[in-house]
Every structure is written in structure tokens, then in C-alpha cells.
Amino acid sequence: MLTVNIHKGFDVLNSRFVLHGLREAVRAVQSDVVFLQEVDGGSGARRAAALGAQYEYLADEIWPDHAYGRNAVAEGMDHGNAVLSRFPVLRSHNHDISLPAVEPRGLLHCELALPEGLPTLHVMCVHLGLRESHRRHQLARVCETVQHEVPADAPLVVAGDFNDWRGRADEQLATAGLREVFMQAHGHHARSFPARWPLLRLDRIYVRGMVSALPVPMPRRPWAQLSDHAPVAAEIEVGRNP
Description:
Blueprint lengths: L1 E4 L13 H11 L3 E8 L13 H6 L5 E10 L2 E9 L3 E8 L9 E7 L8 E7 L4 H18 L6 E6 L7 H6 L4 E2 H6 L16 E6 L3 E5 L15 E6 L5
Parallel strand pairs: 1-2, 7-8
Antiparallel strand pairs: 1-12, 2-4, 3-4, 5-6, 6-7, 8-10, 9-10, 11-12
């Protein structure tokens, strides 16, 4: 599993369009499932849109299935979250978890068909707000979605940019049975922002119902040049159906 906020394909200073390099870096990880935030949906006339939908460009020939959840539209251009998958996407739905009069936020929920003998894998890609009060509301919506849409015995991954520099999300998500991979292994979350000199622990991978979930260290290069966020990765094992 890999999660990264791709900053709409631009580097940390918004001075260079680096989607080509980002595609090579994402492919080098060889993750079965990729969670993306701040993905340009391909609309609009700016140069970045010339490649079409960024999630399709990144997925091409590697991840046969993908899903996109549009969260915001500004000046004729849209962006949101995306999931790239080597496994068939059975269903996907983008939940609007925004608050009135603030920047739109979404939760992209997908059900993935794993190989025969394995259960359906539920994955959720999120990008939460900058204010703690907004995040509390959005995390509550995540927990509600888990409760109503994910069977209690189904394996689940919730990953993305949580913007949780105060470290408050764990307690709230624990009510839905979710545990963060790096926190479980090391006692702290991975540093991921800013990518060049990571100080804040914003990007996470939470899991429930797994046989094992281990953090995967990621190199600083080339990622520090490709976005304002560093990626976070984990190796996850799903148990077989009884």
C-alpha cells in the first residue's frame, strides 16, 4: 500500500510540473494499491490538463482499475482523491464530508476483489481539513461510513492526508477498530511534511482486520523533489476466507 499527496503534479514550490517523474517514482514502489490526494481530474485548459486525468496517466499499463472522487471545482478545473488498483474495483463511491462554506473534502470508498480465497478488501482514500474542528467532524463521518458500509469481519484500509499534526485522529478512529501502521510498529507516525525536510506527521495508513501490517521505509530521493508531501507505504497481508 502506498499513499501520497501529489500536489496536482507540481513540485513543492509550484514552479515545475513533475508528473512524469512522479509516475516513475510511484511505479518503482510496485504497490498493489495506491492512494492519491490532490489529483487533477483532467478538466480545464491549463498545461497540466493536457495529459488528461492524472490518475489515468499514473495508472496506465500498471494498475488496470482505478477510481476517482472529485472533491472540488475551481475556475473550470477539478481535483480530488483517487485509488489505483491491480485488483478489480467492484464498487466505488465518493462521500462528501465537507462542512458548509469551507474547502470541499471527500472520502473515496472502494471495494476491491482480491484473488480467489481472499475476502473483499475495503479501502478508503481521504484528505481531511486544515482546522481541527473540521477534522473532528470529518473523522466522525469516516467512522460512520465504516460502521454502515463495511462488514465487521471485512479487511479495511483507510489512508491519505489526515492533516493531523496534533495527533488526535488515532483515538477517534480507534472507535471504528482502526490502527495506524507506523504507530503500531514504532510508537509514532511517519514524518511526511514538508517533503524536503519532513517535520509533521500528516500522512497515514490505518488498517483493520489484517493478518499483518508493516511499515515500509521510503527513500528521500526522488520524492523530496516531486511534491510537498513525502509518501507513506506499508506491506499488508490479508487473511484467507474461513
